[in-house]
Amino acid sequence: MKRSGSAPGSAAPQCGNNPHRGWYSRGYLPHLDASHLIQFITYRLADSLPATVHERLKAEVASRGLAENRRRAELRQQIDRYLDAGQGSCVLRIPTIAACIEDTWQHFDGERYRLLEWVVMPNHCHVLC
Fold it and tell me: Cα–Cα distance between 114 and 128 in angstroms, integer?
């Protein structure tokens, strides 16, 4: 089940009393926190991309001898294709579960972030805020 939407209104919210932190790291990935940024977030169910499949895709892309930036882009495309094929339990296709995901995103819309677009796919989600 594919569900998408766009929240009404256009005011950019402030993030409470916390100043924007700029570039920072929580120890594993760099993050950029700034008021003017639009963030695109993808997350997936744990069983939607088994580790063995991920390793196989990485090996296939690595064998092509591409430059590092092109290799990362190609791996991302391969992963996206695999996810779009609907592998795993796909519990997000259940309307009540998809609605719960959307309700959760909308809870802080306009307070901590501005929710722009979203889509709930059977095994992964995309959010633009």
Answer: 9
